[in-house]
Amino acid sequence: MNVLVFIALLLLAVWLLRRVMQHNKQQPEHKDPRPLAERIDAILPQTQCGQCGHAGCQPYAAALAKGEDSINRCPPGGEEGIRKLAALLHTDYLPFAADAPPSKPKAVALIDESTCIGCTLCIQACPVDAILGSAKQMHTVLAAECTGCELCLVPCPVDCISMRPATSSPSDWRWGYPVIVIKAIKSEARP
Amino acid sequence: MRRFLSLPGGFTLPLPSRKHDSPPASVLPLPPRLVLGLQQCLPCVQPGQQVLKYQRLADADSEYGVALHAPTSGRIIAIQPQAQALPGAPLADTLILEADGRDEALPLQAGDPSRLTPLSLALQLQDMGVAGNHGPLLALDWAMQQCALPLLIINAVEDEPYLAATATLLEEQAEAFVAAIAMLEQVLRPARIVLAVSQTDSSEALQAAVSQHGWQVSTINTPYPAGDETTLIRQLASPAEAAHSLCLPADAVVAAGAAILHGQPCISRLVTLVDKLDRPGSVQALLGTPLSHLLNFAGAKANYAITHGGGLRGYALPADQADAMGLHWHSQCLQARTPDTAGQQQDCIRCGDCLRICPSKLQPQELYWHCQQDNVETANAWGLQDCTLCGLCDAVCPSQLPLLDSFRHTALQYQSTQQQQQQADHARQRHRFRQFRLERDKQEKAQRLAARAAEQAAKREQTATAAPQENKPTPAAADKQAAIAAAMARAAQRNSQHLEKQSTSSADDRQADARAAAMAASRQAAIDAAMARAAARKAAQDAAKAASAGSQQVDTTAASDDKQALIQSAMQRAAMQKAAQANAAPANMDADKKALIEAAMQRAAAQKTAQANAAPTSMDADKKALIEAAMQRAAAQKAAQADKAHAPGKPEKPENT
After folding, report:
1. With contact defined as beta carbons under 8 Å apart, do A156 and A56 qualify?
2. Minimum CA–CA partner of A172 in chain B
């Protein structure tokens, strides 16, 4: 009798073990089939500004995938970007490099149209084709397409391009982080 | 008849019975200026323009926008971005109208609802500025579909504390309300109409009017989030009707009735003013009335904070901008609170009250934890997207945690993250296309250049081959030498021929014989025989001469011996002559031929040297020059590429596009 109970328990244990193993098998660790460089590229902000020292976001992602560069060189990505990169690459969080340019809020280039001479230099510099115009004609920036990379500022021979903070519409607005109101406690309330 | 849906959670709020404390709506004095937000419309007036009451100020900017009309007569002062009475007071274009106090109005034209179709009704309502919960009262895309309407719900439920505007409206304008619903029934032709009212509203007048038309009044007594459009449809519509039924707010229905039946654009609404006020109650206020004007009219204390909306879902507005923020259609209620009503926030004590009350079956305490950590993905996994932001958890929390604020913040944070990701994907796509375009342009240019270079090379080759035949400027000396050599060779040949003729006069005959013999093998025998005969004759003659001139021994020899000897000697002579002939003629031929061959060889050599010196070298030089030029160009291109690759921001050569 004892032996039968023991065998029954053993069978139950084996069955339970199999269930657990099946459960574990059914939920494998989610793996992204894309190559590592592409997954890194998906995290990067796609400003294409070249502040990391590479020619764009994709070359930087390729260098990161090869381990040739550090993850703290992307100012537009911000600290949030560094954290995401660190999580993806299984490395430690690094603060911004001391020589890296500071992170700025998103801005949009604006061409002073009365000064513009129509040299097309900024059009050739723009990495996302966000500047419209032709030779000896006035140029203008498509604000919706501008990534704020500031690459058009340097080539402009008449310095007619300035960066303006991106305008926010009511639909862009979001609830602020809930703040705890700090109150002054009366001094006599303290012991 | 009516089914009660067993909604999870929820809370039956202790709503006050309005029968006792609903003062009649007072009419607000005209404010000095009106602040009208232009969020879903484009202005059609200029600053400085004088406008009359009911005049159109702005057109709808899309199918989701509504038009805006002047609430009173006056002058447009400015159109400028200002804070709106929306959550967080965002900036948007605002039209500021200075009232002149005369309140001159355009004449109104009463409409005829009998000729309206659902689409024309929707367009007219949009034109009159009657807004619903999502844009125009009747969505244009819904009206376009022209599908049958099984159920029309008129939502007069006010489930939040402090909301009383709709109840006041139904009490005071019951006739207008009934007429508006009758108009909607006439145009939309719903299968049935249900009026959803709160438990506390039981106006006998309304009941009587409604029963005449055969409409159904449904008293909603479910727990708090009952006034939701989706909740009402779930509650009142059968599953077959649920997908196509329509739920319209009662205040907008009254405005629609005024707009269609009397041609009056939507310019004012009832607002409930509550809390800490001397004269709380409902006020008929023009749209665009500054909030400070409203609150001052109700007798607000000097130091107050504004909450816009009901007691659970309301949001705070900055009191210092109350002058600049105007009333809009969705401002049902304004609360003036004392600033220090904010409670003391404490730690979560895991009481589980929020969990039990949540109508969406979520776990707010867990959600709050993840929202505090800004862990959006985990919060989504815990069902943040299913949260209806009803605010019940926030209301029941004993620790006074800012649950609703956290959820709203994190949900919108998630939305903005998604937006940013979309923008980044868009930028990536544009950048990749730009790279592709540059590469394609480069390849096309290279192909064009290669085609042009090939064309030029072909042209040059043509000219190079044509040159030696025509003018040959460089190899002139060599040619001259070759010509001289050829001429000399020819002269030498002629000389040798002449000498030969002089030296051997009879050689021609023999040469002819020998040539004939060599050429015609068939006639060889005959010729031989003739020659033998001739030789015999000669030998006979010679023998006769010798006999006559010399010894007698010859005469004494026998005839047969003589003949044989003669024949032999003749044959020997003939053989000797033949040999002489053979020796003489080939020698002459050799000399001639040699001279000719030498001359020809000299000429050929001269030509070769001339070619080698002149044409080939010139061709080589040309080719070399071309190759060098091409290599230089390639190197320059490479250098330019390298420059570009290393410094993308470096200015390139301007290119006329």
Report:
1. no
2. B416
